[in-house]
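Hello,

Our lab assistant flagged a job as stuck in the queue for most of the afternoon. It eventually completed. Since we weren't sure the result was trustworthy after the delay, we are filing this so someone can double-check. Below is the sequence as submitted and the structure that was eventually returned. Let us know if re-running is recommended.
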Amino acid sequence: MNWRLMTMVIACSLASMLWADEPKQIVADTTAVDSVLLPDLPHYRLDLIMPFHVGNEAPSAQEERLIEFYRGVIMALHETPQQDSIVVDLYVHNSRLDTAAVAQMLRDSVLEGTQGIIGPFYPDQVALLSQWIREHQVPTILPVTSDEHYLGDNPYLMQYNTTPEQERKAVIEYFLSADQRLHCVFIEDSIMDAHNRLMRNAIRKEGISHSSITGQAVLNDSLLYALRANAENIIFFPTNKFQRNRAYMAKIQALYPQHKMAVYGVFSWLKEQINVPLIYTSTFVTEQEADLTEYDAVWEQFFKMRHAVSYPRYDLLGYDITRKLIGLLTDKRYPGAQSDIDFEPYTEGGGKVNAHIEVLRSE
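-- returned structure --
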């Protein structure tokens, strides 16, 4: 099912309809709207390829996030005539969850004439579309995929998510610039993942103070012997799966705050009650740094509702990615509301990856 959203005015009316319990086919005569309200502005065509919710059941939590993302796209288009003196014609395609719908899009040539693409959302769909995107030289932003090997030979693909290599580099720079002495402690067990092994190797290469301890030794209350009394001890886990680390975390919490400690983890751990300072990387600016007062006021007026999710917000992700793509097409710098996206080449002659990554700390 495809929809064409001809102008930001039509997009406004569709925003509340695409996610109805029953799928609707939208037919709109936009000639009068274009000629009366936006007579002289140049038009750009963008295509959005994402898995839409279609059916009678209520959307799942993941689908709710995608709804928010889509609304953020609409918000960006709503602002475009005023911000950039252009109008965006948005073609919306339901990619569903596999490659069948995307393959049909290629057979039907529905992307002909596009000037920019947002999506797809799944690696197999990216692989299927990549050659067409390269042949037609269409700048394409991948919002949620993290499989950077698709970028190797396609300079028109731009991945929002940063790579593990970028994360390790940012963490190393953060540690080297610290204003206090640090000591890194690696908990090692049989499931230690590649990212944490490479992090340990990078810290060793830079000469940062570090030690290792087996997971069994931690469970036997021997973590204290791996700590340094005259430094803040940064604890690294074998894996980023919080449930797998829960027993280790209990042992760390028992030693804190009597000993100077922090743990290195991932953004999603902020939802857990770990009661130890957490060091993590993020492509988002902190909520305190993001001034969203004006945006939220327009959002509530536009959609007659509040945004549905807590920070970081998927609507802001959709908004920032859309505004970034429009900026690339119009050669304008766009500072994000939630993410200051900065694409850099992943490989020479290949795609690009967002280089904006911050190392943050929660107390």
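-- support follow-up --
The delay was a queue issue, not a problem with the job. The result is valid. The CA atoms of residues 238 and 244 lie 9 Å apart. The chain has eleven helices and 14 strands.
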